[in-house]
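Backbone-to-sequence.
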């Protein structure tokens, strides 16, 4: 008899995919505040769509009473692939959380085949938004999946780490 914790962490499901049955085994690892990690075991090759989104960046801090706002956090990078063949085997899946404190970047999400040869996709976390400051402080947004926005006076947006999957932040 499995404990409640074991039942929450192991899923063995059978699916009807592309005219045949396949069994997917998913194991939930203990994660951190930064990400959750899973292992996916696929018994038969099949075609599917993949959607991976990095965690969003945290917004920057504003200055109370001065009507000066921090920059917005950047969106996590996005990867969407249609009709890709997932070969049988073991895949490590990481789901990244968003930035947890002012100006912090989000965390990357990924799917990587354990042999590292056929599937290796990473969506970077969004850049943190710039914090407000004075004219002498750097108030730029951070780079990330999509860059964080710049804050007040002289802040500029952070750059996208990979322009295929995100955009630079604005001011």
């Amino acid at each position: 008899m499995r404990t409640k914790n074991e039942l929450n962490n192991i899923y063995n499901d059978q699916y009807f995919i592309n005219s045949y049955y396949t069994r997917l085994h998913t194991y939930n690892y203990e994660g951190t505040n930064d990400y959750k990690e899973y292992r996916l075991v696929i018994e038969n090759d099949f075609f599917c769509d993949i959607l991976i989104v990095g965690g969003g960046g945290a917004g920057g801090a504003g200055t109370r009473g001065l009507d000066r706002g921090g920059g917005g956090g950047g969106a996590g990078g996005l990867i969407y692939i249609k009709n890709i063949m997932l070969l049988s085997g073991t895949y490590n899946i990481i789901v990244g959380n968003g930035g947890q404190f002012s100006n912090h970047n989000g965390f990357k999400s990924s799917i990587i085949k354990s042999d590292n040869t056929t599937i290796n996709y990473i969506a970077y976390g969004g850049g943190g938004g710039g914090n407000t400051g004075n004219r002498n402080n750097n108030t730029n947004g951070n780079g990330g999946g999509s860059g964080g926005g710049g804050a007040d006076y002289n802040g500029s947006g952070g750059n996208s780490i990979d322009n295929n999957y995100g955009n630079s932040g604005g001011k």
